[in-house]
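Replying to the earlier thread about multi-chain prediction with a worked example.

Input:
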Amino acid sequence: MNQRKYTNSVQELIRNLEGVFSNQGNASASYSKEALISRIDDVIFKQRGDWISSQQTLTPLEELELTDELGLYLQEQKHEYVRYRIFEALFSMARETALEYRRDILSKLVSLAIVSKSSATLECAALWMKSTEKSHVVHLVLSLVTDYCVLQQNGASDLKACIDFSPRFCCIFLIALTSHYTMMSSEKCKEVGIIVDDLKDWPCLRLLDIVQHWLLKDPAICYCTATQMDKLWRTVIKATHSLPDSLSLTPLDGLASWCVKTPFAPMSLLAPVITTEECAENLTYSDLHSRMHYGFLKVLLASKPALKAIAKGSVLGNPDLQLWSKQQAHALVGDLMSLCNHSDATPLSGSADELAVDRFSQISQIAMSMRVLNCTKDQFQSLSDPLPKTRLLEIVAYGPNRRSSIDETPMEISTNY
Amino acid sequence: MPVSSNPIVDGTMKTKQSHTTSKLGPQQMVHWFVASSYASGSFTEERVRNSVALLHRVPAARNAVLHRFTMLFEDAVRSHLDHIEFQSTAPGISPEIASSLELVVNTLFELLEQSGKAWATILCNWSVEALGQVSSCSKQRQTVPPPGNLGHLLSFWLNVVPMRMLLDVYRTCLKILIENSPQSCVDSLLKASASHSPHFDWVVADVGSAFPNAIVERVLYTGFSKFCKLRWTPMSLQPSASITMNENEQTILTSVTRVLEHLFLFHPSKVCNKIVDMFKTPPSGKSSSHIKVTLYLMNLFSVSPVLLPATTEMFVDLIDATRLNNLYKQFQKLNRSPEEIANLSSLVVHLVCKSSSGSAKLISFLLATTCSKPTGKLQGMDKGVCSVFSKIVSLLMDDLKHMALKEKNETSNVFTEISANYEEYCNNLLISCSTSRKTWWYDLLLVICFYKSYANSVLSYILTEANTHSHLEIFLQFYNDVAPVTPDLLDSVLQKSFQSLPKLSTDKALSLLTNINSLCAWDEAKVPSEGFKTRLIKKLLLVIDDIVLMVCKLPIKKHCAKLCVDILYQIMSTTSTCDLGLGTRLLPLTQSLVYYFYYLLHTGHKNNDAAMQSCHRVLVQLTQTPETFSVVCRLLLEASVTQEDNSVLFGKRIEPELDENEMSEIQAGRKVNLLALHQKAKAKSIFKSSLSNGFVPVSVEAGRIGVGPKKKKKCPISQESQSSNNECLSLLLYRCSCKTSGNINLNSFTIPDVRQTFDSDKLLHLADCIISTITVSSPQLATTITLDGDTEWPSCNTRKLTIERDLQIFYFLDEHPFVWQLLFLIAHNHCAFNKVSSIIRSCMSVLLSHYESDRYQTPLPETSLHYQVATKVMQLLGKGKLVPEPLCFVGQFFHQISPFEVSVLLTTVWNFIKEHPSDAEQSSENQREFKLENINLQPFLTVVHHVLHANITNLGYLFSTYMVTK
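Result:
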């Protein structure tokens, strides 16, 4: 039967690869590394280099078998290094041949790993995501989002559960999410007349639910890439560090901007509600947003171990690594200004502007006090100066003693003098 | 590797397993699914249920599960078809499969209901692919109708339950997609249609009629975006997501066309409108989108023989100067190389060649664009556009010519279409002032002529419409171009022209004939036409009967007749009598010409009118030989007497001459009182002549007693025109009687009245004709003793017996004065004159009776009829050599002698003729020589001498004349 033949040939090839990777430098290996890799496309993915004969592809069933088998193999392979090398051999995006098809198979593999709670596969995937070009990562992430947040009614729980067996995957997943969903297209863009799919840059309700769940469950998740930097990761990331368009180390910047920008969510997102397992009542977008904000503040508070690890130089050997840099904060202020309806005036109380500025103030304050954001008082004052002034921002920037410009009256000015 | 270790291969395990799958983890579910897929045996409900569970639980297995569902549907359809084909042996769809199907479909609908937007795309792709696959798999089955019969196929598949289920799923998905994200909804449809056509076409048809507008629009626009990406995105930047590897321009266009053509069958107007809408409002506001859409549509049409003709006219109506200018600008912005323009041009040409209905309009439009000063909706067109179109048009013409020559026998729509408009093109060709445009119209007409038997229509149309010399030059050029490829062209052109002639308006007919005429008279020295003239005349011979017929259609086409006569002259003057086929044609030809001649006389034409001249000319040409002369002459003369309205022309008196009283009385219907009339006449005669006293007899016409006195009659024609008519007829006959001498120029040709001028044979025929003419003129003349050959003069006294007939002849001559002229003509040949001597005899008989009975001594006045006739008779007798000199001169003094003396002289002449008859056997060639006959004139001259004696005072000077010198 075909089934046997195909699985056997896949197994054989993987075994050969395993042999090559496990005794590197041993000349007795019957196959050279390059020869084996070049056979991968042909044997495993059945994609020939010449696309004229591309009729020979895997049936959906064979695809399923392949992913299942790969998942099982990765799980059984105890040697972390070999496991990742084989994973990379199969799915390296640096190899051009059958690239799209391999990426699709990868998406399926990761998707299956999530549902079957295969931490080995997810760890490999996490490292792959960190060391691969952003566009491929986003593709993978979006396909996972489609699978678990769009198509499956209760797929979110599978994703939520990932935090239990692969926090690093969750962390990278968060980084990719926040870098893709920039939350920049709002009602404002529409007014200008630029026609954009206004939901394209906004995460869906379920996704937000997952994010807030992860943040609240384990605030340290955001730092696990930094704190759990082992030898394999360090090697691989250092090798691909020069990659022009890769993901950042932590999701702090992205999450901060999510928290700040969510008040400007388009109307179509605000209306629907979802129920989650933990909370019986219906949750709206803003409810989830508040939870996420709360979670993020907790994340900031839990930054100590990560900062320590960086200071020790164990993270990529760079003690000056910034978790949330001043440039990033600057960019966020710029985005915020473009999103605010009245950037110079004092925002109305209860408006989206006020909420956004307030959240920015809170985040900045904690970040500064936790030394996540390395910024002096003066620097912050000039940073926040262009923003609409709220009471909270005044307090954060100038301290509680300075009289608020909001309360100022001419009389009081004169007495102040 | 654990897959192989999965324990589900034999049946017992399966059932056991099936109960527990719901409690299994996802990975086990996957294993179970994989194993069951490879396991033998058909689908069980358990397996399907587990598959559904897997679909819900493991997203990664989605494709595999859906693929499995496809197999399920295929299986169901197969057993259904088996059941239809082999009723008894195949059980059909088992209940288990039926319920499985239901389960699957319900699941899918559930998914669509829960999160439609997300699932619709996936299920849409899946269902359409499944439909295609199942359709393709079943194509070999006998029960499935052939793909050609779309309606049948559609109704067949809709009756197959699993297929209907699939189609329902697809339709639901499509509906959701059209509502939410219409951009990509038909991608899968196009793909499936491309890979499974024609067995998949029924799906397209069905879906198309369910959502015609959306499908048409999407198919068009999806094709467009792919087309744009392929064509205008550099290779390196091509986004690979929307275009699969093996798609190229051609496959995209073909699949779009295929779908559109199917939809066109059921919704022609919707498809056309969408296409036109797309052109009107191109998608996306980019600057160059308009030209892109245009190029896309043009490419689309180039692969679709159905859509092109349906929309051609709509597009032609739509295009105007601004649009063209805009397109041109955009095209230039695309920064295309010259080859690209050449490609575009050849594409346009290709399209025009392929278009059918509306192609004429399209071509006219193209030609209009090349106009240097466009009008109407093309006003303000850019010069560049104009030049591009010029190139296109010249290319088009070349192509059309090639096509026309190549596909001579095939039916090609573009030709039929443009052929119908050849008249318009001809007009344009003749009217157009620009040389280049002229060339194009010319080429277009050439194409029409090359293609079909339109050459004759075109040429005859040009011939009809031409009205300047240069038009005729065009005609000649055109003829020379077309003649080599069209056999017997001139022949058919002329036939066509003359067939159409009766239907044409007078102006057109005139111009046609004028043109033919001027072509006949074409000056080859000025414009060389390679012997066209001779050929034309040769060919005109074939239609000579038509021309003759035209001459007869006088009252309607009077001017045409003249031209026809001219043409006839051209023919006759350059063709031998033999070629003319006069044997059969002479009679009708002559009849027509004679008819025409009298028509001219009736309408008051004179001798020197152009029409009359040409009529004379052609008749003279016709009477080259004595035989033809005899026919012409006979017809001409008989027509003058047998038809009353003709004889009136020469002075026949038919109307009663009434004075005013009588008129009024007759008008009042009062009876005529014979006595009163008598008295009135008497009173009149008293005034007239004082000599008459007492009773004056009034001659009463026989059978009219009680009606009134015998009425004098008069001729309704004025005296002037009478004489002109007489002159005209006699001049014609004079001319005809002349000896044949090549070309005749009527104007400079004066006929000397000498014997040598005339052909003696013709004169003999003329004499015969005159006799027979008189014979047929009235029954009395025909029946009385004879006029034929009775040339013997009886004794003078016996004339009393024939006086009745003689009188009739006398009056006949009076009413037809031209006969006198003819008699003078005949007198040149004495043999001929001998034949008509009976006429002279009758006249003399009447004269004798008249002069004998006159009792007065005074001579008759010179104005009297009898005197005039007497002198004419004497002149004739002298000229015709019946009476020798000087006896024939006696007529000179009739007016100076008494009537009785005249009668004596006439009797003497009579007696001379009686005693010296002309020798009938003498050759007509030689003149009669009295000197040779040894005639003793003395006894006759003695009588003359006596008369001279009696009137010696007046006539003494004449005496010497009548002395015979021996």
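The longest helix of chain A spans residues 2-22.

Feel free to reuse this layout for your own posts.
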